[in-house]
Amino acid sequence: MSQPKYSDTKAENAAFEAEVKSIENWWQTDRQKGIKRPYTAKSIAALRNIGFKVEYSSSTQARKLWQILNDHNANGTYELTFGMVDPMIVKETAKFMQTVYVSGAMCGISQASWPGEDHADYPADLVPSVVKRIFNTQLFQDQRQTQLRMRFDEKDREGLECIDYLQPIVADADMGFGTLTGCMKAARSFVESGVAMIHIDDLAMGLKKFTNGEGRTIVPTSEYLSRLTTIRMTFDVMGADTMLLCRCDSDNAEFITSVLDPRDHPYVLGATTLIKPFNFAVEEGKSIGKSYLNVKKEWKASAGVMTFDDAVKQKATPEQFSAYLAEVTAKITPLMERRNISKRILVEDIVWDWELPRTPLGQYMWQWSTKAVIERAILAAPLGDVTWSRQDKPNKKDMFEFHSEVRKVFPNRLFGFGYMGAYDFLKAGYTQEEFESFPADIAKMGVVWQVQPVWNTQGLSLHARQFASRFKEMGIAGYTREVSKPAIAGMATDKYGKPTARGGYLADAFFDVVAGVEITGTEATTS
Ligand SMILES: C[C@](O)(C(=O)O)[C@H](CC(=O)O)C(=O)O
């Protein structure tokens, strides 16, 4: 019979109390102390493998990233990186980039066994598996470099490049893969992959549209906060310092899945003329061959679609409306109370119905605003380490307002920002100079981690297309001239002048060590 884990319940209590204390102490560290949890250290301890501490590489990488981003924040500078999925490309960027980004969209299109658009419909461990491959390659390249360097004596080593291959990896955790337990498992896989930071957003699963003119669909604030809490709880249970980037996709969102959270009520759209439901209008439109978008536009106009507050404003005098606003903004005011307050002040019922505009997929219509995005980001911030408001297109006013308002509440907040592939700064009203200085300008507001996520489908595709066409023309002789010779010339070489790209000497070193041959210093050979 095996030994029981504890000699008696007193020993068990002592081990449990020690675990609680160690969590409390950990939460006081510089890295952790800014996070506000809605649960206790005791609850986390009660979910742990007590007395069995695993130190994850993810924590090491997260602490490194935390330092990098805080240094940028202190200096008003920034890290600008791009999306990568191929470990060998990551290796080449190590000399120039401090971080690596693994994009969900790029994994979905190029790494899943069945490719697709950015729906996060691939297996939940796909992005972690890409991160793991990249992280293992980083370790390998670092090990290869150690082996190469240790073959030289100290003086000769001075002329050899010495690269930090272990750039922290930031990865896309999309919407958290559905259920609470799904979200937990995804977070666990990310930690085990060696990731430094993941981002999670407030989008609804399965409702992303790309080209049909429909906007994004978000989940209620409460669901977004539970996703973030689930991730944070998983990190805490694992004892991982992994960073959490709270991405908010409410900018330009058009729909919300549910109206259960009163914090969302001011932004839900309702009909002020009680016509037939939008759903019916869509069916009728279909039967006579009208496009969905036209039906939507016409229906919204006939139904007088607006927020409840706008419906009140339309009926109230300016004094009545100010009195109404003063009451409803004093605290979280659900729709029912908004109705009662407006009725008391205006002495009439406001005709307004948020069920009529529901779409054939059940979404409620939503009026996005920077204020709504700011409110979400502020609620989310204490659970995470970095904030990112994803924008459909660059917008000067929103950029400034968002970051400065969040900073009024969290003065030292770190932000991330993604440059979507189709962004056109000049069309969005920026001058060329403003565009050039944009990354540095937003860094001054705390936007310290910046990314171009979709380089794979732009830069890499462009290079591949150009190379394929050139290869067709020049053949293998041209390849040697234009590709292999310059590539080899650019590689670090071993002490005998051989290029070191794939680390053949590392492979051989394992054999040498087993055979008792010394592999360091001037006696080493690299044959
Ligand atoms: C950043 C992003 O989440 C990604 O998966 O790379 C995408 C990128 C894109 O679709 O342009 C996103 O911004 O939603």
From TrEMBL:
Q: Which residues form a coiled coil?
A: none
Keyword Transferase carried by entry: no
Alphabetic keyword roster: Lyase, Magnesium, Metal-binding, Pyruvate
Q: Name one GO biological process term.
A: carboxylic acid metabolic process
Its taxonomic path starts at: Eukaryota, Fungi, Dikarya, Ascomycota, Pezizomycotina
What reaction(s) does this enzyme catalyze? (2S,3R)-3-hydroxybutane-1,2,3-tricarboxylate = pyruvate + succinate
Binding-site residues, Mg(2+): D172
Free-text remark on how the cofactor is bound? Can also use Mn(2+) ion.
Pfam families the UniProt entry points to: ICL
Family to which the UniProt record says this protein belongs: Belongs to the isocitrate lyase/PEP mutase superfamily. Isocitrate lyase family.
Q: Which InterPro entries match?
A: Isocitrate_lyase, Pyrv/PenolPyrv_kinase-like_dom, Pyrv_kinase-like_dom_sf
Q: Report quaternary structure and partners.
A: Homotetramer.
**Recorded superkingdom:** Eukaryota
UniProt organism field: Lophium mytilinum
**Identification of the protein by name:** Isocitrate lyase
Q: Which GO terms describe its molecular function?
A: isocitrate lyase activity; metal ion binding; methylisocitrate lyase activity
- Which cofactors does this protein require? Mg(2+)
